[in-house]
UniProtKB/TrEMBL annotation:
This is Nicotianamine synthase. The lineage of its organism: Eukaryota, Fungi, Fungi incertae sedis, Mucoromycota, Mucoromycotina. Belongs to the nicotianamine synthase (NAS)-like family. InterPro entries: Nicotian_synth, SAM-dependent_MTases_sf. GO terms for molecular function: nicotianamine synthase activity.
């Protein structure tokens, strides 16, 4: 991955006010605008600093510095901000230039973190009595996945979706979402995990076998665009990192629409607010454009990073 060096940006801001504004509202308004712009600029500088730190590392593999920088970025992104601050940050030219690279870094960092943990859990399974001890609980973001899975299950229940057969596009090297879905939702009979990466499928298959889930979870090494089993699915999950940009997201959604049956549910993981620095954003109208009817959109404001969109194929 190549990260370009960004030129310094001019941060000077100027504006004009009418005489009336100066006389009546300028003292309060000027302070208000200045504080908002100051807060936005502080965030921009902090994001730039994190990006510079990550891009200077020889690798994004888990380590003390890498983990600290990613944790700082995630913590910054999941805080609650007013709409004006969010707009100011995301539309700032310095950040607009960085978003693609930040998302790429997050994708690589997340893959390497999950791969390392998947190997560790497989190793732990050989030493633990998995009927008594759950090796998955040691994963650093285990509770976040629990909360996200709860949201998705309750969303399906609320919409009357029965997920007997599930297809998960972009399951990755640590398919925790699929595993938790089989444990937390008794309706699930079969999950088909898809991933284009050979190594991810290999270690994920080994993990699923090690915890005794290979009878309900099946792995397929393929491009999701080439998968032929969408017609059998009750629910199709599109992971947040599938499709690195808006055009690719639409391509996947259109392909799913063309291959699945009417009424099939699709759960798309998206992002809102400054979480958009971490993952590509999918809007409800994107699904409508691709032939789906959107039923629910959930934007968490807690530690869960991803938004959840549930739609059905027309």
């Amino acid at each position: 991955m190549v990260h370009q060096q960004l030129p310094p940006m001019d941060t000077h801001l100027s504006g004009t006010h009418s005489v009336l504004c100066q006389h009546v509202i300028r003292p309060h308004s000027h302070h208000h605008i200045k504080s908002r712009l100051s807060a936005s600029d502080d965030l921009v500088q902090e994001i730039e600093s994190i990006y510079t730190g990550l891009s200077s590392l020889p690798s994004l593999e888990p380590g003390m510095t890498t983990n600290k920088l990613f944790s700082k970025l995630v913590s910054l992104c999941i805080q609650q901000y007013d709409k004006e601050t969010i707009t100011n940050v995301l539309e700032d030219p310095r950040i607009a230039r960085l978003i693609k690279y930040l998302r790429d870094m997050c994708s690589v960092g997340e893959y390497l973190l999950e791969y390392q943990w998947s190997e560790k859990i497989v190793s732990d399974c050989k030493l633990l009595d998995i009927s008594r001890d759950d090796p998955l609980r040691s994963f650093v973001y285990y509770e976040n996945y629990i909360e996200l899975t709860k949201l998705e299950i309750h969303t399906m229940l609320g919409c009357g979706v029965v997920p007997r057969t599930v297809v998960f596009i972009g399951s990755g090297p640590l398919p925790l979402s699929s595993i938790l879905l089989t444990e937390m939702c008794s309706d699930v009979a079969k999950v088909h995990n898809l991933d284009i990466d050979v190594s991810a499928i290999s270690v994920a298959s080994e993990l699923v076998s090690a915890i005794g889930k290979n009878n309900v979870i099946e792995h397929h090494q393929c491009d999701g665009l080439d998968y032929k089993g969408f017609t059998q699915a009750d629910v199709i999950f599109l992971a947040a990192l599938v499709g690195c940009n808006h055009e690719q997201k639409l391509l996947f959604l259109q392909r799913i629409h063309d291959q699945c049956e009417p009424g099939t549910a699709v759960i798309v993981r998206s992002a809102h607010s400054l979480r958009a620095l971490l993952y590509p954003v999918v809007e409800p109208h994107d699904l409508v454009q691709c032939g789906f009817d959107v039923e629910v959109v959930l934007h968490p404001h807690n530690q869960v990073v991803n938004s959840v969109i549930l739609a059905r194929r027309r």
